[in-house]
Amino acid sequence: MLEVRPFAGTPDELADFIVSAWQSTYAGKMSVPQWSGDYFRWQLRLDEPDSAQRLKAVYRGEELVGTMLYVPMTFEMAGQRVQAAQASWLSVPAEHRGQGIGRMLHQAAQIQLRQEGLEFRLGYGYTGSKVSLGPGFWKKQAGDVSTVPRRAGFWGRLLDAGRAAAWNVNRGEAWLTGAARPFVFQPRRRNPGGIEIRPIKAEDIPVCLDLAERATGHCDLRLIWNADRLSRQLGLHGFGRALVAVENGVVRGCIGFHVLPIAGRTVEPIGILDLVFVSELSTAARNELLNSVLLEMHQEGAIMALKLRTGDYPTRTFLKPDWFLKPADMDVIITGTDTNMTIPPLRRLHVLWR
């Protein structure tokens, strides 16, 4: 008998189950992030009271057969503050699919979100491969409450073209990546006068909150940060990291990032730019901050850097010869908890990719 209840194991056991479930379906066909227990502690704020309710699971007896996870966040949509969630990690191993487990998880999450007063959950459906199950599931199971306001892709920057070519499961992309190898140069600092790049400190958070507001105020849908959530995201509680740019003695820019192993044909570290608050920086300081982040990623072994391409940054930040534009191959999916919810046009988004 199948039963929905909160996940009962450790974060490390949760990560092992989810990665194994995704590998059972996508290994060798799509890239699969190798999430860890520390990653989930960071992203899901698992030290908060009642955080176990965010970890929806289906059990057959004591056997875990499916999960869906979310984390409450504050958004602003078309100028209105909304309590909602970012969600992901719908995971059912291949041998357990076709038994309604995904539907059970979706329905249980809807009930929990309503109880918490959360108006929607935001996630993604990868459309860049025919083997991807996400878009079809959401269209079938949540078509009456789900909206796809836009598609999204990435900006990318190669850091090791040879390893990236060997890693890529798409043979055409792998060939192009390998061909680009002679033209890939390592990032470097130029050390312009009056500019200091350093790791973030706790006392920088109030300034970074202001920078977030200035950098994302133009977005149609955006995350609204408070001091606790921003400090977590920027790595002051572990896992994530951030560098700030001090220009003429004042913190005027911040980039938050993390490095995540992702399995393709091989397993390689990929650098993810999460938060890019650089609208108040001069061009020289912006370039120095971005190159400093790329250099740290490269020193950690990352083969490339990615930034979600949804318009929450000055476009000229990535309009450079060493950055490339990946196609928009993900649906941004907003699933409301109320069938009467109306989603306005959303072009520019400040959200996390998960």
Automatic annotation (TrEMBL):
<keyword id="KW-0808">Transferase</keyword>
<dbReference type="InterPro" id="IPR016181">
    <property type="entry name" value="Acyl_CoA_acyltransferase"/>
</dbReference>
<dbReference type="InterPro" id="IPR000182">
    <property type="entry name" value="GNAT_dom"/>
</dbReference>
<feature type="domain" description="N-acetyltransferase">
    <location>
        <begin position="2"/>
        <end position="160"/>
    </location>
</feature>
<dbReference type="Pfam" id="PF13527">
    <property type="entry name" value="Acetyltransf_9"/>
</dbReference>
<dbReference type="GO" id="GO:0016747">
    <property type="term" value="F:acyltransferase activity, transferring groups other than amino-acyl groups"/>
</dbReference>
<protein>
    <submittedName>
        <fullName>Putative acetyltransferase involved in intracellular survival</fullName>
    </submittedName>
</protein>
